[in-house]
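Form 7-S
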Amino acid sequence: MKRIIALIIVVVLVIAGWSGAWLWGASQITAQVKALETADAVTTPRVTCGSYFLGGYPFGFDLTCGEATINLADTTVTASGIKASAEVYNPTHILVFAQAPVHVKDEFTGSESTVTFDAASASGSLIGWRIGRVSLVLDKPVWNDSVIPDQPRLIASADHLEAHLVDLPKLYDAANHQQGLGQYVEIDNLDAPGFAINAGKSIFQGELSKLPDDVRTYDASVVKRWQQAGGQFTLVSFKGDDGDTHFEATGNLNLDDQGRIGGQVKLNSKGVVERVGNAIPPQLKGIVLGAQAADGSYSSTVNIAAGVVFAGLVPAAVIPPVF
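Output:
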């Protein structure tokens, strides 16, 4: 009998301890959410919830933010709902789900657009305090210009979109607390009437080196610190095609101590010049995209120095400093 009583006491203590730990964790999460409601919306996004609920006891944390609104500078994003989940024993792995529609409004330009989808999910995980993986997956996304609510205009739609940011062990420098991150984006069956794209496919692959390996230090100065560390962006490959038209770009970019972009990008395309219309001024199309070959393709090398874009020796454009 004494053993049974002792066992019951142990079980009660374990449950009480676990419950206390869960309640403490829940209070910390709620405090962070409440702090976002009073953020300045300049350096930190302001996030408000029309309704808020935190559940998931005893093995997880399930946060539901209904009628979510995110403000940052002149941009306001609203979503019908956002849900985030994490397991108690693995709190650095977070899953996020969004409910359509998502509405985006820019007060400065007056533009408004709406994104709908069949399903939207995101996830993030840490290795210690460095980024392990951040992923976004959208099924059947549709992006409409909604300045005139009753007359939406299709900007783009796709069957599937996924984007990933992943740790690159080969670029990890523990001694200098720096990591490398790979980027991968894929869009399938893309339709974009404004660019006459029909059933297109696009794949983007890039690498960033010498980023701080502690997300707790990420703030508005992170880009400057990345530049000071000698960080590089490598455009491994950016490809797109929709049958008759294709393009591919590769290159390397960096920033100088004044935040100006430098580097080189190599371009190869066919059919793009005819598609871009007035997106590139006529006098610059040949300079930027190169001369036409016998097979109808274009090739060029674009050099960038101190924010000035050169096609050959000819200055073609100026890119504003990043900081």
